[in-house]
Amino acid sequence: MATTLTDDRALDPVVDHTDNPHHATRWLILGIIGLAQLIVVLDATIVNIALPSAQEALGFSNDNRQWIVTGYALAFGSLLLLGGRLSDLIGRRPMFITGLIGFAAASAVGGAAGSFEMLVGARVAQGVFGALLAPAALSLLTVTFTDAAERAKAFAIFGAIAGGGGAIGLMLGGVLTEYLSWRWCLYVNVPLALLAVVGAALLLKKQPKAETAKGIDIPGTAVVVAGLVSFVYGLASAETNGWTSATTLVCIAVGLALLAVFAVVESRVSDPLLPLHIIWDRTRGAAFLVVAFVGIGLFAVFLFLTYYVSLTLGYSPLKTGFAFVPMILGIMSTATGSAGLVARIGPRIPVFVGMLLAAVGMVFFAQLDVTSTYVANILPGLIITGLGIGLSIAPSFSAATSGVDAEHAGVASASVNTFQQIGGSIGTAVLSAFAATATSDYLVGRAPSEANQALAAVHGYTTVFWWAAGVFAVGAVLCGALFRSGPVAVNPDAAPVAAH
Fold it and tell me: Quick one: 19 exposed, middle or buried, by C-beta within 10 A (0-12, 13-18, 19+)?
């Protein structure tokens, strides 16, 4: 049975926090969780600016370059559900700390890498430990904040970090690459992770494991890991081998088939890795779609706008990174500023408006040409896109984990991260292919002069921005229709959330 949050203070229950050992230190814990999430999110983009320097230092080819990014995505995306289940079975605190320590160690190895193989191995290890860390972080947030109004604020801050972390990664990567070395784009994780470990050891209390937990769903785990690896690998190979290559088609087809098998397995096993009721719930399903659509659209901004300002406008790595500051500020302002509104009216309207704003921002970017300037042509789009993403992502993170019983908080949190990662992977492959096709088509019948090459590149970028605008617009309509009106319903048997 579900009850609905209300803003009628006369009906507010007296909140009992005696069962929550983290209540007194909840805001400090939010700082530790936010730092851990920032480490995971920024590592998806921080190496982008460092790649040219790393390639020159280690001498690997352009074809191999993508695997420094894809290796992280493959390990992270395919193991998130397992990481979430381990968090529920073993405990959120030990998995959170283990993930942080492992991530720091992998980052240190990557920073010291003397070969391409060593660097890719370190990035894969980062993905493995990130898959342990991310679900534990979000589920800790879910069970730490038991007051509805405070939870809305906490998820708003968490959503701002999740949405803006990629842009922060570009900015930090520019600073470190320009003033220190590309290696510091990996080394920087070590002190950040160790700081989070100390905070977690001091603030997080040991909690009993779920009494109903039975074990790990081995068949489901094997099938979903194989399916996600095959699917993401197929998408990644499309950029270099093309959409019609046997590798691309077979890997994508096998991945989709295995994911279908996973759904059948989960409906039949007694203790599933991913209980299907978590996915099929209308509100959570809509929230998962939002983070996937945002993952696709954000890729267009982070990668292709980075290409535009660095290659077309000639910005340095430092200037390129700081060019994204207005978008970060936009995400933070609406993600945190809309928390009270979302608590009162629910996520439906904010998400719909936010995704439409993001679509408008993409339309601004689609007008760029070789003579455009930052202030007149890029800045407005960054601000509008940031405002829209902040308005969409924060309530979706909260809705995706609301009403989930404590036993499944970890796997629900992992599902959010999985959809975001798969969305980003789809964006990487599909939009890169669109850009490559548009660029080559533009050059057909034209002389391969430097001027035409520049025009062709910008045509590829703007084509991607038009597609991203369409993605956000479709997401606005679809998710706006799926979300129920009003505040999110809360299961009284779930991790407690009291109206305030």
Answer: exposed
Tokens of 15: 């909140």
With contact defined as beta carbons under 8 Å apart, do 217 and 271 qualify? Answer: yes
Take residue 415 and report the two structure tokens written for it. Answer: 């599902």
DSSP string spanning 234-298? HHHHHHHH-TTSHHHHHHHHHHHHHHHHHHHHHTTSSS-SS-HHHHHSHHHHHHHHHHHHHHHHH
Query: What are the tokens at 428?
Result: 């990487």
Query: In 376-404, which positions are buried (b, 16+ CB within 10 angstroms) versus exposed (e)?
Result: eebeebbbbbbbbbbbbbbbbbbbbbbbb
Contact 309, 378 (CB under 8 A): yes
- What are the tens digits of pLDDT across the range 171-181? 888 888 888 88
Cβ–Cβ < 8 Å for 410, 92: yes
| DSSP character string of 34-62 | HHHHHHHHHTTTHHHHHHHHHHHHHT--H
pLDDT digits (tens, 9 = 90+) for 333-355: 887 777 677 767 778 888 899 99
> Is the Cα dihedral 351, 354, 360, 361 positive or negative?
negative
User: How far apart, in whole angstroms, are the C-alpha atoms of residue 291 and residue 178?
Assistant: 32
**What pLDDT does residue 497 have?**
36
- Side chain identity, residue 68: I
| Alpha carbon distance 74, 231 (integer Å) | 9
DSSP 169-181: HHHHHHHHHHHT-
3-state secondary structure of 403: coil
Query: How far is Cα 66 from Cα 64, in angstroms, rounded to an integer?
Result: 6
pLDDT tens profile 51-106: 778 888 888 876 677 778 778 877 887 788 888 788 878 888 888 999 999 999 99
Write out the two tokens for 463: 């084509």
Q: Sign of the C-alpha dihedral, residues 24, 30, 31, 36?
A: positive
Q: Confirm if 77 and 421 have CB atoms less than 8 A apart.
A: yes
Cβ atoms < 10 Å from Cβ of 12: 13
pTM beyond 0.85: the answer is: no
Give residue 498's pLDDT.
Answer: 33
Do the beta carbons of residue 57 and residue 181 sit within 8 Å?
no
Asked whether the beta carbons of 499 and 13 are under 8 A apart, the reply is yes
Reported as a pLDDT band with limits 50, 70 and 90, residue 378 is very high
**250 has a pLDDT exceeding 50:** yes
Angle at 419 between CA 413 and CA 424, to 5 degrees: 130
pLDDT average, residue stretch 13-40: 72
